[in-house]
Amino acid sequence: MSQKRIAILTSGGDAQGMNAAVRSVVRTALDKGMEVYAIYEGYKGMVKGGDLIRKMDWDSVAGILHKGGTIIGTARSAEFMTREGRRAAARNLILNGIDGIIVIGGDGSLTGANLFRQEWQSLVQELAQSASIPPEAVELYPHLSLVGLVGSIDNDFYGTDMTIGADSALHRITEAIDAITSTAASHQRTFVVKVMGRNCGYLALMSALATGADWVLIPEAPPDVDNWKEVMAERLRAGRAAGRRDSIVILAEGAQDRHGKYIGSAEVQKALEESLGEEVRVTVLGHVQRGGRPSAFDRTLGTMMGYEAVQYMQNASPKEEPVVIVIKNNRIATLPLMECVQKTHLVAEAIAAKEYDRAMRLRSSSLKDAFDTLKTMSRALPSPLQPGQKRFRIAVLNAGAPAPGMNTASRAAIRAGLDKGHIMLGVKNGFEGLINNEVEEFSWMSVSGWVSRGGSMLGTNRKTPKGKDLYAMARVIEDNKIDALLVIGGWTAYEAAHTMYINRANFPAFNIPTICLPASINNNLPGSEFSIGADTALNSIVEAVDKIKMSAVATRRTFVVEVMGHYCGYLALMSGIATGAERVYMHEEGVTLKNLQADVESLKRGFESGRRLGLMIRNEYANPVYSTGFMCDLFEEEGGNLFDARPAILGHLQQGGDPSPFDRIQGSRLARMCLDYLLDACQTGRENSAFIGMLNGQIQYHDMRDFDRAIDPQFQRPKEQWWLGLRPIAQLLAQHGPQK
Ligand code: ADP
């Protein structure tokens, strides 16, 4: 039997992106012909009932995507911890005819939900016996269906790579630490920054990696020596001696030493003041981490998870064990709820039992990876040379349009190479610099501060080398004795590296290990589901569209927002999902006159029924004839007195700005892996050429031979684009109401 009447509630600590999930659950359920209720104030509302359980319609969740927190309220409920409370909750559900619930919360909330579901039959029987509900209810409500969604800024839940809210919290923390870094650097100060995360070090570690912090203390990996305070102070001192102007220590709230004793911020402060002989400031970030606008990722994640929860509830038998919706390797999936809750508790148990390796293993592999990267990046100076070691000369080059995160990746590559004892060369101004011999040796401190900077410090341009250029490049490679080349960039960067590869027979100098790292806001590169810069651009678009939407409140207006992406609709579709656009136009789908007519009709219906805003997002190359201007004129003309239309061409703000935490973290990870690849090739005498990327959650190397096969050369995008699979969700949510 499929569910007909379901309810959604948010419980425990609030998290950004919960609203996106609520909106998605409500609209998907309505679209499937279900009735859907919101239970306000979490379990408190379920126990209390009455007007805390309210029927939702399509518009009850309008205009909430950009809001932090949860509009249906959340609470902690002591009553729900008691059987009596849960009995009252069961009665309230039955009185409303609800037999399926979708709970968004942390492991506590999901444990409570599971217990409630297990007890359901006995609770219903008790209620019938005491005549609190009609006797036939026992037959009518034999089971309670339950699906869980993890909403938690801590990212502490087993089985999912990300929880709803963690990415936004990371945005808040990164912004705060960037700000602290600038004042700390001005005064040459030391700061201890305490971040949330309960017993999970995710936020602390990732923010440390994203901001170039000097030291991090997390629960899963306590310092391995008892005199860690001296070791830490020594590291900071060495950093200053090497020229660093600021010192930042990030402390996770659950951090402890190897004997299981909690480490407090005052303790770290005191130790550093004593050792360094200077004042040390403490900043406890507190609730700002929970607040503010949800990031683009959290909006999309909440939306996808909400959609999947309803799909699952519709298709699964209510007798089946409850599931939790997770994101694993960039795909939404379902896992048994209780198994995940238990494994989540295992991490806490492992930490309590001081089995730190086990705790780290239970967390996702990227946490360990990030920790290793951080240990290298935060060194004051590179590790000393090994006696007799062969030093390779490795060049790093940025090419194509600027993409936020290019500097972070270049810094990570340069430091990773220096730390292994090699000579790191920076090529200025892209392939033009390689043609003109703009090559410079880089030192550890020459990339200091690059971690958080937008644009390209090395310089980049869209030059694609041809003909004579190749001779010049070969010469420069030989003159500088370049042993291997890392190219960080977008489409033109890949094309240039590919040109070098296919011209190897003519230019022996090109027979060096080469690797491309995807960095382009367009996200149109083969072999990778994400390119560095796209997440930042997406967040910039979402922020701009939020403002544009607000400006329209006073009038009845349709906006046609044009976003970048060349022929790739990624930015258009994802920003459409994250901002609640009615329509997304992209080249992959094409635009026809018939489409536009239907859109005009749909807009008219919307405004006639009281809407005040129309939002259409158009990829820049969606169609050469039906341009942004054309569409606007069409909507303006057809809108008559109902609404007017305005274009908003977002332009280069999409390529600028400080890189998002994801782009910084991913850029650092990929750069380190690229270095490993190049060094391995150098050491084993191979001359591979490759491009790296994240596919199905794994970082993979692809042979340059496969470049042609992977791309659509005419439209400069990969043949397969995973995100096209999200179109049905975008379409469903963009409607003005359920499909009749
Ligand atoms: P989170 O869901 O963020 O982990 P809490 O642990 O505070 O937050 O749980 C939120 C609410 O979930 C609690 O106030 C309580 O109502 C309910 N809950 C948590 N654990 C249980 C449990 N073991 N049994 C019943 N209800 C629980």
Helix content: 40-55%
Total individual domains: 4
Average pLDDT for all residues: 95
Give the quaternary arrangement of the chains: single chain
Largest sheet: 7 strands, mixed
Count of helical segments?
A: 24
CATH fold topology of the largest domain? Rossmann fold
Q: Which ranges are low-confidence, i.e. pLDDT below 50, for 5 or more consecutive residues? A: none
Total beta strands: 24
Brief overview, please?
With 740 residues, this protein is α/β, with parallel strands linked by helices.
List keywords for this structure.
Rossmann fold; binds adenosine-5'-diphosphate; 42% helix; globular; seven-stranded mixed beta sheet; 24 helices; 4 domains; alpha/beta; 740 residues
Describe this structure in words.
By secondary structure, the protein is an alpha/beta fold. It folds into four domains: 5-163 and 294-328, Rossmann fold (3-Layer(aba) Sandwich); 166-289, Rossmann fold (3-Layer(aba) Sandwich); 393-532 and 662-713, Rossmann fold; 535-657, Rossmann fold, CATH 3.40.50. Strands 3-2-1-4-5-10-11 form a seven-stranded mixed beta sheet, sandwiched between helices. Strands 14-13-12-15-16-21-22 form a seven-stranded mixed beta sheet, with helices on both faces. The protein has a four-stranded parallel beta sheet with strand order 7-8-6-9, sandwiched between helices. It is globular, with a radius of gyration of 27 Å. The model has no long low-confidence stretch (mean pLDDT 95). Adenosine-5'-diphosphate is lined by residues 11-13, 43, 76-77, 80-81, 105-109, 111-112, 115, 152.
